[in-house]
Amino acid sequence: MTAPIWLTAADTALIGDRLCALGWLAPDEALTDVASAGDGNLNLVLRVFAIGRSAILKQARPWVEKYPTIAAPVERSAVEASFYQLVRAAPALRTFMPQLLGVDPAWHLLLMEDLGEQADAAALYHRASTDAAARTQLIAFLAGLHALDLPLAALPDNRAMLELNHAHIFTLPFAGADSDLAATAARLGQRYLLGAGPLLHGDFFPGAWVYGDDGVKVIDPEFCLFGPPEFDLGVMAAHLIVSGDPPEAPDHLGAAYQSAGGGAVDSALIRRFAGIELWRRLFGVAPLPVVLDHRRKDALIALAAGLIRA
User: If you count Cβ atoms within 10 Å of the first and of the last residue's Cβ in the chain, which end, N or C, has fewer?
Assistant: First the structure.
């Protein structure tokens, strides 16, 4: 097994050689171009082109792509690959995600189906929430995902990634919060760290939703974990609020989830996780991709605190 080389978009020849060595390119086939495939937060994400086809190449490097000073375990690539394989095995879910075409454990590479040049759903932040059809599809995806009956061994060990996420969601953003709020966040963080419950996407926000010709797709399950379904729902609800939904979005989302066949959920816990997501996007290292004036930011801070204490 060769040691990994940490790639960049400029490494066309090296990437071509690696894809040929893996059998992902035919011997008489060559790459014609390599380009960035968007602003990846966690991983290097490239679009690779050969004659008549393209694919997405992801590499987990030993740091967070957007924040290179933050170390991150490269084993997350194997965990993400397992998530895609589990979803692919579920007929009701496989159409929601791009197909995993190849896995290179030595260089921590994933080769993915290219969904095309569609943008993610970040435009939602600049208009009034999701359209009804997309929202229905996203809720159906979560209900189906959480219904999978899987043993914990279905995913490779993800403890290091879980602890990194925990720090940046439940601990570091609350360094300047009042003690009661920080203590509540810490208790919720312990629920997250337990690793008990159904399989979760782990970062179910507009950056992971891609609109295509055949409906909305879900990508980037890099933070997947076993945990409370209310966590996925709370993250989704927080971003729906930012994109125009009322503060009652967590309750509405929980009801819609159960109507879609999802299991029973705790509405208060959805509210608390929604508050956590809002707070960490306001005070953590991964801010919302919107410009907030002081009035709007103060309103979201107050709402987040109220939801966490709900």
Answer: N
pLDDT of residue 203: 96
Helices and strands: H and E segment counts in the chain: 9, 9
pLDDT at residue 216, rounded to an integer: 86
Single-letter residue type at 28: D
Q: Alpha-carbon distance 197 to 126, whole Å?
A: 34
Amino acid at 130: T
Helices (H), the chain: 12-21, 76-88, 132-147, 159-166, 179-193, 229-242, 249-259, 267-283, 294-308
Overall size of the chain counted in residues: 310
Q: Output the pLDDT for position 127.
A: 61
Q: Which residues of the chain have pLDDT under 50?
A: none
Beta strand 209-212 pairing with 215-218: antiparallel
- Which residue is associated with the tokens 């992971």? 208
Q: Are 303 and 241 in contact (CB under 8 A)?
A: yes
| Structure-block tokens of residue 133 | 């059809």
At 6-57, the pLDDT tens digits run 999 999 999 999 999 999 999 889 899 999 987 778 999 999 999 989 999 9
Q: In Å, how far are 81, 208, 248, 294 from 88, measured between CA atoms?
A: 11, 17, 34, 44
**Nearest C-alpha neighbor of 112 from the set 161, 40, 162:** 40
The CA-atom distances, in angstroms, between 98 and each of 87, 146, 197, 207 are: 10, 19, 25, 15
What would the two tokens of residue 207 be? 């950056």
> Cα separation of 299 and 306, whole Å?
11
Across-strand partners of 34?
Answer: 48
Spatial contact of 301 and 282, defined as CB atoms under 8 Å apart: yes
